[in-house]
């Protein structure tokens, strides 16, 4: 990478730091020619194959905007959304693949969204999994109820 100040093609790494989420490395560099200092951020590339076949870089912002729609009127903050998007990115990166399709992102969203807000989860799942009958909603709600019951059983057992 060229020095942004004098265009010298060489630079020296003076510090490297891994981000808190472990997904990127920030390198502090110094140009040996003009002494200018600058930073570079290195991340493994992760691309998304859209249904249309178009390939674009993974974007947490896109995950957030997709989920934000499902969260309208719900007690979900921007910080919650940012955390969810980070979790989604970690999940899809763990697959070890540098190209994923939108379907895998949808799947990775369902779990954390469900923990965040069940109504938003049902809304998102209804679009993502293309619910088209009331029975689809009933089945999803029944699943949530069943999980609540088993969670309660565990709590009861632990309070004995
Ligand atoms: Zn320079």
TrEMBL record:
GO annotation (BP), single: negative regulation of DNA-templated transcription
Protein name (record): Transcriptional repressor NrdR
Residue ranges occupied by any ATP-cone domain in the UniProt entry: 46-136
UniProt family annotation: Belongs to the NrdR family.
Protein purpose: Negatively regulates transcription of bacterial ribonucleotide reductase nrd genes and operons by binding to NrdR-boxes.
InterPro entries per record: ATP-cone_dom, NrdR-like_N, RNR_NrdR-like
UniProt-listed Pfam families: ATP-cone, Zn_ribbon_NrdR
Organism annotation: Microbacterium imperiale
């Amino acid at each position: 990478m060229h020095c942004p100040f004098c265009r010298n093609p060489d630079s020296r790494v003076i510090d490297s730091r891994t981000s808190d989420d472990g997904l990127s490395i920030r390198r502090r560099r110094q140009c040996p020619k003009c002494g200018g200092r600058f930073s570079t951020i290195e991340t493994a590339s992760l691309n998304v194959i859209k249904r249309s076949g178009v390939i674009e870089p993974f974007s947490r912002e896109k995950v957030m905007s997709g989920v934000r729609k499902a969260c309208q009127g719900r007690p979900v903050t921007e910080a919650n959304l940012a955390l969810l998007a980070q979790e989604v990115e970690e999940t899809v990166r763990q697959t070890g693949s540098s190209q994923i399709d939108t379907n895998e992102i949808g799947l990775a969203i369902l779990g954390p969204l469900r923990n965040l807000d069940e109504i938003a989860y049902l809304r998102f799942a209804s679009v993502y999994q293309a619910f088209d009958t009331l029975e689809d909603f009933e089945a999803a709600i029944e699943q949530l109820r069943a999980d609540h019951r088993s969670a309660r059983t565990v709590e009861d057992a632990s309070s004995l």
